[in-house]
Structures are given as C-alpha cells and as structure tokens.
Amino acid sequence: MLTIDKINKNLGGRQLLDQAELLINPGERVGLIGPNGAGKTTLLRMILGEMECDAGSIRMRGGVRIGLLRQEIQDDSQTLMAMTLAGDPELTGLRGERDVIQHHLLDPTRAAEHDALVARLGEIDLRLTTLNAYAAESRAAAILTGLGFAPEDPSRPLGSFSGGWRMRAQLARLLFWAPDLLLLDEPTNHLDLESAAWLENHLKKNAGAQALVIVSHDRSFLNRATNVTVELENGRLTRFSGPFDAWLEQKAMNLQTLEKSAARINRRREELECFIRRFRAKATKAKQVQSRVKMLAKLEPVQKAASGVGPPRIRFPTPPACGMEVLKTRRLKKGYGDRLILDDVGLELKRGEKIGLVGINGAGKSTLLKLIAGDITPDSGQVLLSERIKVARFAQHALETLNPAQTVLESAATAAPDHFGDTALRTLLGGMLFSGDAVKTRVADLSGGERVRLALAHLFLSGANLLLLDEPANHLDMAARAALEEALIDYPGALILVTHDRDLMEASCDALWVVANGKVTVWEGTLEGYLEQAIRDEPAGGASGAALAVQAGRDPRDPREIRRLTAQVRDRLRAETQQARKRLEKLEKEIETLEAEQGRIQAVLADPEAYADAARESLKNDVARLGQLEGRLLEAMTTWEALSLEVAAQESEAESELARIRAGEG
C-alpha cells in the first residue's frame, strides 16, 4: 500500500530523516513512536503529500484515499453534523449534485435536458446506495455519540464548542469518511477515558478494512490499537511486527546483545593495544606488532544506543502527616443555570487512598474536583476536610499561570515555602527531571511536557497531602508518563485522579468513583469492566450502558468475587515470596559493597607505582583480596539470579491465575 524508499528530510537545520525506509501493507495498524522532535508529525505530512522529501520517494498504491487528523477547522459556522458528513467529499458532492438536478427537473426551460438529467439522477442514486448514503446521518450520529457528544450537539454550530471538542469533531469527520489509510496524530489527547476506549474498539472493528498509522504517547492505547510498531530514531525507521510492549521487550534484548558485543570488542581492542604498546620497540616482535595493528584496524566500533541511560524517575517530597479521615462530602449539589451537574453527593476518602475518577466528559468530574479544592462553592451541601489537610489541584490551566519570563528555578521559588533553600529547591526540581543547567531554562522555551512537570512541581511545593489531578499526563512523552506513574504509586498521600491514560489509572489507583447522572458512585469492579459497559451502544433514554450499570454500582462479572479471589492470590504471592525478597535485598546490598571494594582495588592495581619494590607486599595482598572478591561476587550473583528467577516464576504463575479469574475461568 505504502512504500517509503530512502527518504531524507532536513527541517530548520536538523536532519529528521536520513535514508529512512518503510513498507506499510493493507490493513496494518502501525504505532509510530520516537522521542519528541524526532520528526513523526513531519513524516505524516510527507505521507499525505503536504511536504516533499529532500531525497528518496514515497510511493502509494493507485486510488488509495489518505486522511490525516488535523489540528484546525476552517468553517465554524457549519453544524457539527454537517461538518462530520463533509468528511466524505464524494457523498457530499453527489448529494449536492442530486439537489441541483432535482431543481433543474422542475424548471420548464430545461425540458430538452430532461432525459439526460433523469439518467444522471439514476446514476447518482445508484452510487449513493452503494455508499450507504441513506444511513449516513445515523452512522455519523453513532460516531459522535461514541466520542462523547450529547444527543442535541449535532445541530449546534462548531463555533459554539471549545477547542477540545472541535478536535473530537475533526476525529469524527475522519472516522466517518473511513479512508484507506488513516493517519492519527495523538488522537486521544482530547478524549476522556470512555471515548478513548470507544475509539480503540471502533478501530478494532474496522481492522483489515483500512490501514492505520498512529502517533501517540498513550502506551495502553498503542498496545490495544496497533499490531505493528515503527520506531523513528536518529533519522531511521525500524519496523517490528507486534504492539508496543512486545517491541519494548525486543528492544531491551537487542540492547543487551549490543552491549555484550561492544564489551567483547572493547576487551579485544584493549588486548591488542596493550600488546602493541609493550612490544612496539622490540625488533624481534615487529612482525607480531604489525599483525596486531592490522587486526586493530579491522575491529569495527559498536555504537552504544542512546537509550542505555536509565529511565527518568520523578520523586515527590513526602507530604505532611494527617489524620485517617481526609475528606467527606454531605448532600453536595451543584448546577450551572438550569443544568444540574451534581446532586446529593456523599463521599468519604481515607488517608493514603488513591481514587480514579471516571465518567463521560461533562458528567461533572472537574466540577467535583473544583468543589473539593474550594475553587467553587456548592449550591447546597458541604465539603468537609479534616484538620492538617491541605488540598492542591492540577488542571491544564495551571500551565497558563506560569510566568514565561522566569527560569524554571525562579518559577519554582515563587511556589516554595519560606524554609525551602536553593539546594532543596534544586533537589526537588531534579526529582521532576530538571537537573543541572535545565533549571536555568526560561519557561517560554519549555516544551508542553516540560511545562506540565514544572506545574506539577508547583503543586508538590505547596505541601499538599491531598492531590486532585485532572489529566496530568497530557503533553508528557512515554518516559515521563512512566516516571509519573511510578511516582504516584509511591506517593503516600491521598489523591483523586482524572486521566484518559488507562495504564496510569490502573497502576496508580486502588478504587474507582464514577460520575454519572448527577451522582458519584463507588464502582464495585475493575476499570476494564467499567469500560466494557462504557463502549456499549446507547440504550433508549440516552443514558449510556456505563451510566446504567453505575446506578447499581456493579460490574456485571460479579466483581466482589473477582476482588476477593484477586486479594487471595496477591496475599498468597506476598507470603510465598517474602523470605526470598528479603534475601534478594540483602544480597543486592552485599553485591554493591563487594563491587565497590573490587573497584577500589582495581584502581590501585592500575597505578604503575603499585608494582614498585617497596609496595610488593601490599600488591600481593591486593591481588589475593581481589581473587577472594571475585569468587564471592560470582557466588552472590549466582544465588541472586536463582532467587530472582524463582520469584519471577511465582509472579508469572500468580499473573496467569489472576488473568483466569478476570476471564471468569476460576
């Protein structure tokens, strides 16, 4: 379907693509990944034909229709439905032509054209039938509903929607057209969790009918929506047959192989160089020296991958202590004008609890967070916070409050308490991935993801022990999302999280609150169970399948039993691996100590003065000790590896059992 043949692209003095090659076959669902700024969006625009290659070619099979998710809308005056239908130019063109012909048939001055007009009208009606045009409005309405639009929205003009909803409209337009090759650049950025799940399901249902290229930082979405992964790195495209997680595992294996190869070649290089240095001046060794010089010249260097650096890690400061009961709401009610958003909401939150807040856009998630934070007042009812509770809320508007003229360090200082010195501030910013000279960068020069991390730093500097996070992962790349996920897992305070990133919510939250029909209900089940309900067809009356299930607060797969069995498996795993984990921790500390001593002795032995006659006794002791260390290290590492494999096997067995429980097999 699509062939990319040795293309080059230089943009703004940067080489984005260098002899890049790729083949995309019909029906393939490709996840295009790579660091920010690598050139992924540029590549999509080149495939569409909006940008040209500096060298090479991009070839498309004849007649292939390509659609790209755009960031702008030209006409705000048309209705949402009209804009969606206009996504299919053939459909709208034929409908327009049919209207003109019907008008001409009523014009007596065109009687001579009557037969030709009737014949053309018959051709148009036949083609419209083939295009299923008579169900076009219902198909468009189903897509709009799946993306979260209300039943009355299709008749509204686009100009009445916010920017995020207009992006959903662009996505609806593209999905309605269903081109042969669909290019999606960050399609979930403006979606809630439910709409992202619907989109994922919609793309799966059309699998085989069209090819996809998806650029996304949402790891969960890529894993579920794609079956091919293409990495754009250092100007090259590398293809892997499998979703993101499978590619990640393969890349780790490739990196390990590369590092072993590099170590082996470097050892050989050192041996050859050592021989050359020792015997270069000896005439009797001249032939051997020249032989080794030639061997050294033939050794090709192995370039280490840039990703060999460990993943980033965000560190949150420990929040102040608080009581067991963090939050209570009593008969909370809030509306805007004639529209009631929340009605009679009663909730309780305990210390250390982490809640995922779900519900379709407009259900009242952000309103609830604003009420808890005290940013707005309820129409009636109360929000009761315990003593020593300090609340901090993160939303996307927090990025707009950052002063673009300040540096990262200056910006953070404005939010820091008085006792926070420069060293403590730099330490915290280092924990938010701003290290070294990065703290001197002006806010105006930060990327979207960097601004999110700085806004989060402001949040943590506030000393809050109740975090309200509204889409904190937006604009973060995969590495930063993974770091945020680990940080939220380790965070000892309470939090309520709204996010469309399924992995982030599943990993960091222990319970779900669902906002629907003015109520907030504890969901007695899994996130997967909730989303299965959320993507079902709309029943009569306009309430979604998820909203109806929420009224009973039940997951249809007997969630209480699932949770009970899951807890049993986890408790058993914890008990069975407790002793092994303690031994592993002890061994890791011992290995670290042994390696440090080994490194010290090796440094001594690398010093020529260590071989002087006066140091002979000390040298003998160091050599003997080094032998002892190497023996003990080998023994410790062997034991550590065996224990690690044992624990991994038990964890794998437990995961398999958990998967069977979730699937209802036992």
TrEMBL record:
SMART domains: AAA. The keyword ATP-binding applies. It comes from the Bacteria. GO terms for molecular function: ATP binding. Residues 248-275, 570-604 form a coiled coil. Keywords: ATP-binding, Coiled coil, Nucleotide-binding, Repeat. The keyword Repeat applies. Residues 2-259, 327-543 form the ABC transporter domain. This is ABC transporter ATP-binding protein YheS. It comes from Candidatus Magnetaquiglobus chichijimensis.
